Amino acid sequence: MPPRTDRTNTEPRLLSVQRGVNRYAEGSSLVKLGHTEILCTVTLENTVPKHVLERRGADGKKLPPTGWLMAEYALLPRATFDRTQRERLRVGGRTQEIQRLLGRAFRAVIDLDLFKHKTLVIDCDVLQADGGTRVTSVLAGYAALYDLCDKMTRAGTLDDWAIRQPVGAVSVGLIDGEVRLDLDYAEDSRAGADFNLISSADGRIIEVQGGGENGESLSHDQFLEIVQVGVDGVKLLLEQMKAQLK
């Protein structure tokens, strides 16, 4: 595959962040990473799942009330080159996997004790896909949660800032032996290894997801390099986001 001409191997694509784009949602954002675009909304519901109400500690005693967070992900039909069928009756395996990934990412940084008896529902809809839709959804979800926290703290309906750490994500791949950050679709389809990394702004890793592709494998040193490039890439993206969330 030819080398990049628009950016270096360790540079992410251009990030664009808008928040407060939906007049009805408690929090919302529109995030673009290269040509990938995600619309995200946060809904605050006055209920929690049964398993949250019935939480018990190691001693068997019922734990104090808390909140919950869940995420949903959808790829709009013309987000891709060819029309993608809507998942009307059954959510596909890939969608379920991404939804669970998003839920774990946000629950790792949100203080749910500030939302007792409430559920935060994060909806991420892919408007346009050019690689990295799940990592861009993490970025969009964080921006939408920031929007919610800002609105609620200003209104006095949230006692404290609920985001313990900014959270971001990025893809990293191995192409012709080179580690590249933030793959677009053309690169992703050719990668010998493809990873998605989620981490907080202070560099703590929340999740690493991926492995060898197209019958290829990678060495231990290449894996460590991929993780480091990913952590550094998330920091770069969060720095760009911070300037746009004001």
Which descriptors apply to this entry?
9 strands; 246 residues; 29% helix; alpha+beta; 5 helices
Gist of the model:
The chain has 246 residues and is of the alpha+beta class. The chain has a single domain (15-244), classed as Ribosomal Protein S5, domain 2, CATH 3.30.230.
How would you portray this structure in words?
The chain has 246 residues and is of the alpha+beta class. The chain has one domain (15-244): Ribosomal Protein S5, domain 2. The protein is 29% helix and 28% strand. It is built from five helices and nine strands; from the N terminus they run βββαβαβαββαββα. The protein has helices at 50-53, 93-107, 133-155, 185-188, 220-244; strands at 15-19, 27-33, 36-45, 68-75, 119-128, 167-175, 178-181, 193-200, 205-212. The protein has a five-stranded mixed beta sheet with strand order 1-2-3-5-4. A hairpin with a 4-residue loop joins β8 and β9. α2 packs across α3 (133-155). The longest helix has 25 residues, at 220-244. It is globular. The chain starts with 14 loop residues before the first strand and ends with a helix. The model has no long low-confidence stretch (mean pLDDT 95).
Produce the secondary structure layout.
Blueprint: E1 15-19, E2 27-33, E3 36-45, H1 50-53, E4 68-75, H2 93-107, E5 119-128, H3 133-155, E6 167-175, E7 178-181, H4 185-188, E8 193-200, E9 205-212, H5 220-244
Parallel strand pairs: 4-5
Antiparallel strand pairs: 1-2, 2-3, 3-5, 6-7, 6-8, 8-9
Helix pairs in contact: 2-3
